[in-house]
Design brief:
heterotrimer, A mainly alpha (about 300), B mainly alpha (about 300), C alpha/beta (about 525), A: about 300 residues, mainly alpha, C: about 525 residues, alpha/beta, Rossmann fold, six-stranded mixed beta sheet, globular, disordered C terminus
């Protein structure tokens, strides 16, 4: 098992390096310099600024010095807020995004699995159609639509919940978390339903029933593990989706998280901020994919066994 | 076999067999949701294709005196803050949204099927190397890259097609590859080989027709994904740019004014959601209809 | 005093397409220490009959229409689900057919083994574990204490079936339902498992209901038996009565279909061989650092014109690989294959094409060997056109006469494979193989997945075609009885090597190698053969 973990970790390193390199050169290839936009600056100031951001060096030198800084955990200064480093901005916004992401993930996993398993137990009955119709709605109501609709209904018309903010007033975390988690709850529900249906038709469940086990033990002990493997494998991609989904949700609910910073940076052409955030988020996603891979391998005794030697 | 029997007219009038496609179509026809999806989709397609001729108003015709007005006899779905007819704008937006959906999916289909078929047919080391590459791409956070691309290179429709197509082909390649790989081991393909058929003939006559089911299903399910992605980017202001219109963009405008003029959010939202519903129902229905396991009960 | 008394049991399936009488008025008894066998072809209702009394048939669509099943003075059919659960796995256990799928891949052997113990008895986990070790030892698993911690995939098929048997026995049930328990196993393993089952049954005085499609196996193991067809017992009685003096036509048909005669030897005087294989090796790459898998290792053989050569071996022996290599469907690692005097081992695909016409193959699985998207017409027309056997104008006639040759009705010419039964599909596949009028055909287990009466028809069709078209055939099978019925000469293969060869009579009457002897000893149904010699 440790061999598997080691191998997968090693495989993640080139991926992360590729991400950094591609992002770096993409951003550099952007048409128009960072200071060419609105403010006219004197040549002197420009030269000083370019020196500060190392724009006077050849591209490959910029790349290597950026990599060297990254290696020490330094994302460099922000273009837009020269007094603040990208590190500061990331670590100001990230905890908020992480908290939002975790709540959404919790909602998605709990509701998704319960609904999916429930539906799979009696396929093609009301018990199946009800949760699966809801899941279909979840898939067809993207967060940028669901969020505003929820705000409109619960925030404005019914006036039950705050329409924006994060941690400022009671209950203001509820709507954003639901908005972000709904689509993933829907996907997980569909995945766990089809995974369970597949397992429920296996011979070994018949064996379990022939032993005289009551149905709930048959489901919980024998079916769930195999049935939920696809869900575990999906957790990595779901996390990546949640992070990019947070861009929208943070914008809609005006939450001061990393996603909102990123979108703002994108509009302001704050290249160091974009670069830093992309590298940071991408690395995070790669790491999460890795964790979800390891978890599904650990749940599968056959894979575990292959890597034991 | 020496006795050559003369073929009589009765032979030619023999009962036709029921192909798996016929079977699938019969099953699909019984699925009311999928048929609703298909019908709705065809309606939307026709409306969007004919928009320039049937739209009640022109694209940017403003009636500033009117401002944002609720639905009326002249403007069925009301008008936006500039007094532009909302129905017209939704129809034009639909053209862009659907175009993105179909073109990007076509890109994904082309790359994915070719790549997957080659990997699956070649097998061995070629396959391992090709699929390793797909694995690496899978681990990349593409959403963030697309946003980055849009930021860096400006909001360019062609680029958007390519970028979205570039993500979606990965899953298609995996599906096609595993299909081709499975089919290759089937005895009817071995039988074709033992008859002396060329690899191209085997792929065209024996492999592709049998892999078509999953390809069609996944294509149907890719279109809504792509449309969602476009709407997502446009909502953030990173996709389609005004004066072009798309459903994502309309929704994003709708959000700004939803307190006073909720219809500006609700109608474009409905258009997007209903189309996504239709595509997903159709995709699910096709999956059930084309899945040979489903035909056994 | 019988353990179980089934009276007039009927189970119907009510579906949209009508009512299926899966089990229709079946009565039988099971006695302690005795085996009651139910024999029938696929779809005869034998499994439904047994599962329905334990409530393991999904209802709906299934419905018990009538009958009673008396077990320990109670009618199982009137019990609630909760009461039935107390009998399942405790009073009556089941051994399932496929040991590869009937164990949970996500739970350790030990955990699965003690599960029924902990469920039905107040017993600590430690005691249960100890009992599990004992029962594993009893079914012949070595290092039982360690093996309790193993995963199912670490066991071979035969070992898994031992675990499944242990799991059925661990609660000391009164009755065991054995549902085709050896069908998925190799013949030598099958013999071991049957012997084990018999020993344990006698020792513990268990009543066994043995469900099987295989008359030879039943002949070895049954005390009493019933023959089932379309939901009914057409005949019921002691084994000897049924085998020696069958009353019902269907029983006679079944018995006649068992291939138990030996082909009369004819000397093949041909001087030149049609196929020659010298020192053939087929190796497959394995995981890094490990030696390659030697699927075929240094095999030499020859086949004379108009000969049927039987190639026998258990699963994994390399017999199918050898067959495919001879007609160049696989890359040869080393060695030489000659066809009609020409060395074909190094020919390119293009050079092979004209020769492909001369050599064809028939596969085991009639479901996988036909393209599901092509009609029979297209399937049969493809070789005819590809090798220009007929012109486009004659195509309809060509296809029709092929249909006639393999005994398919012309009316079905435009149908698709899924509209045919297994036996009919195999006829289509045979039609495709003989379309090019080949000289040589490889038949790779062509009857293994067919019911016994269908199997007999297909074997006779093959013999007829060999005669009519002067075919030479390599007949690959795991079933010694079938090979004996059909082949002129036999090769025995094990672990990629040929271990024995000779005429059918030689190999069957005086096998030289230990493995061949073991294989022959393992053939079930010897009593069938002996009764035959007594003039049955």
């Amino acid at each position: 098992m440790w061999r598997f973990v080691g191998l997968r970790t090693l495989q993640a390193i080139p991926v992360i390096l590729t991400v950094i390199t591609v992002t770096f050169f993409l951003v550099r290839a952007a048409p128009g310099g960072p200071f060419s936009s609105e403010k006219a600056v004197s040549d002197q100031v420009r030269a000083a600024l370019e020196a500060q951001y190392r724009l006077d060096l050849p591209a490959y030198q910029q790349y290597f010095s950026y990599m060297a800084d990254l290696f020490q955990g330094d994302f460099g200064p922000s273009f837009n807020f020269p007094s603040r480093s990208v590190n500061e901005l990331i670590f100001q916004g990230f905890p908020v995004t992480l908290e939002l992401g975790l709540y959404a993930m919790l909602i998605a996993v709990l509701i998704g699995i319960v609904a999916g398993v429930f539906a799979s137990l009696k396929p093609n009955t009301l018990q199946d159609y009800m949760p699966m119709s809801l899941a279909m709605i979840g898939i067809c109501m993207p967060s940028f639509l669901l969020g505003p609709v929820l705000v409109l209904v619960f925030g404005i018309w019914l006036d039950w919940l705050p329409v924006s903010g994060w941690g400022n007033s009671a209950g203001d975390k509820l709507l954003p978390s639901i908005t972000l988690g709904a689509m993933y709850a829907a996907y997980i529900a569909r995945l766990s339903r089809s995974g369970m249906l597949e397992v429920l038709s296996q011979d070994y469940l018949r064996t379990a029933r022939a032993k005289g086990l009551p149905e709930y033990i048959v489901i919980l002990k024998h079916a769930l593990r195999g049935g939920l493997l696809p869900v575990v494998a999906y957790l990595g991609p779901a996390f990546a989706g949640l992070l990019s989904g947070s861009f929208v949700v943070e914008t809609v609910f005006q939450i001061p998280g990393l996603g909102r910073f990123y979108v703002q940076a994108a509009f302001n052409r704050d290249y160091t901020m974009i670069l830093g955030t992309t590298v940071f988020l991408a690395t995070l996603i790669v790491v999460f994919n890795l964790l979800s891979d390891i978890l599904s391998a650990w749940l599968n005794p056959r894979l575990r066994y292959q890597f034991r030697k | 076999m020496a006795t050559s029997t003369s073929i009589d007219s009765a032979t030619l009038a023999m009962p036709k067999g029921v192909s798996l496609w016929d079977d699938a179509w019969l099953r699909l026809r019984k699925n009311k949701l999928a048929m609703f999806g298909l019908g709705f989709l065809l309606l939307v397609l026709v409306l969007c294709l004919l928009t320039p001729w049937i739209a009640p108003y022109s694209y940017e015709e403003q009636d500033l005196r009117l401002g944002a007005a609720a639905a009326s006899a002249e403007h069925w779905l009301g008008t936006d803050t500039f007094g532009r007819d909302l129905l017209t704008r939704i129809l034009y937006g639909g053209r862009v949204s659907l175009l993105v959906g179909f073109v990007a999916t076509a890109v994904a289909l082309l790359i994915g099927v070719t790549y997957g078929a080659i990997a699956g047919y070649a097998g061995g080391k070629v396959d391992a190397a090709m699929m390793r590459f797909v694995d690496i791409l899978y681990a990349l956070p593409f959403m963030i890259f697309i946003i980055l691309l849009m930021v860096v290179f400006g909001r360019n429709l062609v680029l958007l097609f390519l970028a979205i197509g570039a993500i979606e082909w990965l899953t298609m390649a995996r599906i096609v590859r595993s299909q081709v790989q499975n089919l290759r081991q089937q005895e009817f393909v071995e039988a074709a080989m033992s008859l002396g058929l060329s690899p191209v003939a085997i792929i065209v006559k024996h492999l592709i027709p049998n892999a078509l089911g999953p390809i069609i299903v996944y294509t149907t399910l890719t279109i809504p994904n792509v449309m969602l992605l476009e709407a997502f980017l446009s909502f953030l202001g990173l996709g389609i740019q005004p004066p072009e219109s798309s459903w994502g963009l309309l929704i994003s405008y709708g959000v700004e004014t939803m307190e006073e003029y909720p219809w500006l959010l609700i109608f474009p939202g409905l258009a997007l959601s209903m189309t996504l519903f239709a595509l997903n129902f159709l995709g699910d229905g096709l999956r059930d209809a084309l899945d040979p396991k489903a035909s056994r009960d | 005093m019988s353990l179980l008394q089934v009276t007039n049991l009927s189970v119907y399936f009510h579906t949209r397409n009508g009512t299926l009488k899966a089990v229709d008025g079946v009565s039988f008894e099971v006695e302690p220490g005795k085996t009651f066998a139910i024999i029938g072809e696929s779809g005869s209702g034998k499994t439904v009959a047994c599962y329905s009394m334990l409530g393991l048939v999904p209802m709906p669509p299934g419905k018990i229409e009538s009958g009673s099943v008396l077990f320990e003075d109670r009618d199982l059919l009137t019990l609630s689900e909760a009461e039935l659960r107390k009998i399942r796995g405790k009073g009556i256990s089941i051994i399932f057919q496929d040991p590869m799928t009937s164990l949970n891949p996500f739970l350790k052997i030990g955990d699965q083994l003690i599960e029924p113990l902990r469920l039905h008895f107040a017993i600590s986990k430690k005691e249960a574990w100890q009992k599990g070790i004992e029962i594993l030892e009893e079914v012949g698993i070595k290092n039982a204490a360690q093996r309790m911690h193993s995963w199912p995939f670490e066991f071979s098929g035969g070992m898994r079936q031992r675990v499944v048997i242990a799991m059925a026995l661990v609660t000391e049930p009164k009755i065991i339902i054995a549902d085709e328990p050896t069908t998925a196993l190799d013949v030598t393993v099958q013999a071991q498992i049957l012997k084990l089952l018999k020993e344990l049954q006698v020792k513990r005085n268990i009543g066994v209901i043995f469900i099987s499609h295989d008359l030879s196996v039943v002949a070895d193991i049954a005390d009493k038996m019933a023959v089932m067809q379309e939901g009914r017992f057409v005949e019921q009685g002691t084994r000897d009565a049924i085998f020696n003096n069958p009353q019902h036509d269907y029983t006679r048909k079944l018995l006649a279909a068992v291939p138990n005669s030996e082909k009369s030897a004819q000397e093949n005087k041909a001087e030149q061989n049609l196929v020659e294989v010298e020192d053939l090796k087929i190796h497959f790459p394995s995981n890094k650092g490990e030696a390659p898998i030697k699927a075929v290792d240094d095999v030499s053989l020859h086949i004379k014109p108009n000969e049927i050569l039987g190639l026998v071996g258990e699963s994994g022996s390399g017999k199918s690989t050898l067959g495919r290599a001879i007609i160049r469907l696989l890359k040869l690692t080393a060695g030489k294959v000659s066809f009609d005097g020409q060395d074909i081992s190094r020919l390119s695909a293009g050079e092979m094409k004209p020769l492909r016409r001369q050599m064809q193959i028939i596969f085991q699985d009639p479901y996988a060997s036909l393209n599901p998207r092509m009609t029979v017409y297209n399937t049969l027309a493809e070789p005819l056109l590809l090798h220009k056997i007929v012109t486009k104008k004659e195509l309809d006639n060509g296809v029709c006469s092929l249909m006639d040759s393999v005994g398919l009705a012309r009316e079905s010419i435009l149908r698709y494979p899924h509209e045919f039964s297994g036996g009919q599909r195999q006829r289509i596949a045979i039609g495709r193989a003989i379309a090019t009028k080949p000289a040589f055909i490889i038949a790779d287990e062509p009857v293994s997945s067919l019911d016994v009466t269908i199997q007999a028809q297909i074997l006779d069709l093959l013999l007829e075609l060999v005669e009519r078209f002067d075919l030479t055939m390599l007949f690959i099978s795991h079933d010694l009885g079938v090979v004996r019925y059909l082949a002129d000469r036999i090769l025995v293969m094990k672990d990629g090597k040929l271990v024995e060869s000779g005429s059918v009579h030689q190999v069957f009457s005086s096998p030289q190698e230990a493995y061949t002897q073991a294989l022959l000893n393992a053939i079930p149904g010897k009593s069938l053969f002996t009764t035959e010699s007594k003039g049955f």
